[in-house]
TrEMBL record:
Protein name: NADPH-dependent 2,4-dienoyl-CoA reductase/sulfur reductase-like enzyme
Organism: Actinopolymorpha cephalotaxi
Domain FAD/NAD(P)-binding: 128-461
Domain of life: Bacteria
CDD domains: GlpA-like_Fer2_BFD-like
UniProt-recorded Gene Ontology molecular function terms: iron-sulfur cluster binding; oxidoreductase activity
InterPro entries given in the database record: 2Fe-2S-bd_N, 2Fe-2S_ferredoxin-like_sf, BFD-like_2Fe2S-bd_dom, BFD-like_2Fe2S-bd_dom_sf, FAD/NAD-bd_sf, FAD/NAD-binding_dom, Metab_Enz_Cyan_OpOx_G3PDH
Region annotation Disordered: where it falls in the sequence: 88-120
Residues annotated as domain BFD-like [2Fe-2S]-binding: 525-575
Pfam families: Fer2_4, Fer2_BFD, Pyr_redox_2
UniProt KW Aminoacyl-tRNA synthetase keyword: no
Length: 628
């Protein structure tokens, strides 16, 4: 790495952090991962077997990008870079005796920082509703409830509202976060915050929900509630602190993350999730393979329409995109022509992407997949193969494509931890995706718990917006307040139409599980625990594992830092192929169970008993929440 490098693309970096003793420039608003990548560092830690690791998911799900910053171990893709940060790269132990919860709090920070969450009046410990997630779904839910006079606490891991879709680009820009729709949502939120109806807290990670007996009286607007939910969160900052909020209703809108399948070499630095590449581009202005981004030529691969904005975004940012390889075939859409015809806007969108790809001379191949990644310390090329009707590679069709970056993803999978842990029912869609079950009002099978957006089935931002608003209105109705029936009916029609379209996408872009049959035994299945595919085969064939959970217990797949978020879908699919019974909702729920959904420092757990006295938020009382 060269000294005083980084943020080369824009050439307007003005701030510096220190990486292994060298000064690295970054732009205000970039993450530590973005600063490292812009300084041409594609890997910055090694696993316990010595394999190099850098960024993969890009949104805090996989833990590959762990790095020590100011003495604390942090996820580089989430942690904002700040002037004077002292970053140390190198081995990070994944010893099972050291949980992320312990390691994230291993020593005090060396450099004092401006607190990430502005301090103000204490968060209320009681309100009418808590919303977890400030993406499209969470924002419309919170706004709808506040509009009807409910007191709402809105908690999100991120620095700013908007979630994955309305991502704020470094230096502003013209992305989705600058769109009129988001500006309206944001203005509404700010109005409710100022009026004291919404207490919005960024950088608050919700780690569990708990059914609780109400210890204090409910605010005026709340219904006689049973159960009452306690939402447990960690307020991030130099000194993470515990937060508990009680509410009769909780809307969980935690979104999703990229769904992956293993192939030889998929853990090499340079292989990133498609969503991760997009997050880096939209959020930090780093185009992998583009000017100022590391990685040489780019290949985009996987399945689903999301590959198109990723490829065109990178190409427009100056990357040389060697090709887009889509596992499904265009003719798979023909079986759903009637549903597709009801969404003419989508054809226009697809045509726009096709034009962009043509303009940048990016080949788009359907029925193809990347089946291997090559390189020693970092990616140097991939093998692409044609797939047969069972989506297995056709022998003899393989060819090598030289590239330094592979952006890969097979659609998204919902983030269900909080919901599954408290017993909400889940279902499995036609394409193998899992989602929490909700009724027409977005109510889950647990009383008082609602869900909206990707958690109810991956369907895109427009569907998330509609579902969030419906969930908000349902909570309002549950308080006995009147709800505009026409508004609700319109939202329901929109939701149904968008959901039908999403179901088609799910069916047309399933996980191409056929190729799991041909994977070499030594292919890494679980990146965190470095469990090979062969170990799971052995567990099923020789040790009697008849379901994914047994395979997990026998091999440790899914027991690493990410708690199976990255490998669970593939593990379930592999076990399904071997046993002949594809994973169902029960398997999915078993693999999505995570008692602690986000890292919690042990000190925070220990201090739970010392939380301040209770404080009730209602519509007449200003909350002092943060407007950012
Ligand atoms: C990495 C990535 C990039 C994407 N890029 C695009 C794109 O460019 N174009 C496009 O059309 N679609 C994109 N999508 C899909 C799109 O973002 C979704 O369709 C849409 O954002 C769904 O809205 P949502 O509100 O359900 O979830 P999200 O927008 O994902 O919002 C969920 C929010 O919940 C928060 N959260 C999650 N867990 C917790 C927790 N435990 N505690 C507190 N907060 C939590 C997250 O920080 C996030 O802000 C992307 C998805 C991902 C995963
Ligand atoms: S990939 Fe993280 S636990 Fe398996």
């Amino acid at each position: 790495m060269t000294g005083d490098s980084g943020a080369r693309a824009a050439g307007k970096s003005s701030e510096h952090l220190v990486v292994d003793g060298q000064s690295v420039a970054f732009e205000h608003g970039q993450t530590i991962a973005a600063a490292l990548l812009a300084a041409d560092r594609t890997s910055w830690r090694t696993t316990r077997t010595g394999r190099p690791r850098g960024i993969f998911c890009g949104i805090g799900v996989c833990f590959d990008c762990l790095v020590t910053t100011n003495g604390r171990r942090v996820r580089a893709c989430l942690e904002p870079a700040r002037p004077g940060d002292v970053v140390t790269t190198g081995p990070v132990s994944t010893d099972v005796t050291e949980s992320p919860r312990e390691s994230l709090r291993e020593s005090p920070r060396e450099v004092p920082h401006e607190p990430a969450v502005r301090t103000g009046p204490a968060l209320p410990t009681r309100c009418d509703a808590v919303v977890v997630g400030a993406g499209p779904a969470g924002l419309t839910a919170a706004n709808a409830m506040a509009e009807h006079g409910l007191s709402v606490v809105l908690l999100d891991v991120g620095e700013r509202p908007g979630g994955q879709y309305y991502r704020h680009c470094v230096g502003g820009g013209s992305g989705a976060a600058a769109s009129p729709r988001f500006r309206t949502l944001r203005a509404e939120l700010d109005r409710h915050v100022v009026a004291g109806r919404v207490d919005y807290r960024p950088r608050h990670q919700v780690w569990t929900l708990e059914r609780t007996t109400p210890p204090i009286p409910a605010p005026a607007a709340a219904p006689p509630a049973d159960p009452v939910w306690t939402v447990h969160a960690v307020a991030e900052g130099p000194e993470p602190s515990p937060v508990q909020v009680l509410a009769p209703a909780v809307v969980v809108a935690t979104g999703g993350y990229d769904r992956q399948l293993p192939f030889p070499g998929w853990d090499l630095p340079g292989v990133v999730a498609a969503g991760g590449a997009q997050a880096l581009l939209k959020g930090s202005g780093v185009a992998l393979g583009g000017p100022g981004g590391p990685g040489g030529r780019v290949v985009v691969a996987g399945s689903g329409p999301f590959l198109l904005p990723v490829a065109t975004g990178l190409a427009q940012a100056g990357a040389e995109v060697a090709g887009v390889y889509e596992a499904s075939r265009a003719r798979d859409y023909l079986r759903h022509a009637r549903t597709l015809a009801r969404q003419p806007g989508r054809f226009g969108e697809a045509a726009g992407y096709a034009r962009d790809l043509a303009r940048h001379r990016v080949p788009y191949r359907t029925g193809h997949a990347v089946v291997a990644a090559h390189g020693d310390e970092r990616l140097t090329g991939v093998t692409v193969a044609r797939l047969d009707g069972q989506r297995r590679p056709i022998p003899g069709s393989e060819r090598r494509v030289e590239c330094g970056t592979l952006a890969v993803g097979y659609g998204f999978t919902p983030q269900l931890d909080l919901l599954v842990e408290v017993g909400c029912d889940v279902s499995t869609g036609t394409g193998g995706s899992t989602a929490v079950l909700v009724d027409a009002d977005q109510a889950t099978t647990c009383a008082g718990l609602y869900s909206a957006g990707e958690t109810t089935g991956v369907g895109g931002a427009a569907l998330a917006l509609a579902e969030g608003e419906l969930a908000g209105l349902a909570v309002v109705a549950a308080t006995g307040r009147p709800v505009e029936e026409q508004r609700k009916a319109g939202l329901t029609r929109r939701k149904d139409s968008l959901r039908a379209f999403a179901d088609v996408l799910d069916a047309v872009h399933p996980l191409p599980v056929g190729w799991l049959d041909d994977l070499p035994d030594e292919t890494v299945l679980c990146r965190c625990e470095e469990v090979p595919v062969g170990a799971v085969r052995e567990a099923v064939r020789d040790l009697g594992a008849g379901d994914p959970r047994s395979a997990k217990l026998l091999t440790r797949t899914g027991m690493g830092w990410c708690q199976g978020r990255t490998c669970a879908a593939a593990t379930a699919a592999l076990v399904g192929r071997l046993t002949g019974s594809p994973p169902d909702g029960t398997d999915a729920a078993a693999l999505a169970r995570r008692p602690v959904a986000q890292p919690v420092p042990l000190g925070v757990l220990a201090s739970l008993a010392d939380l301040p006295p209770t404080h009730v938020m209602d519509s007449d009382e200003p909350s002092g929440g943060t407007a950012r």
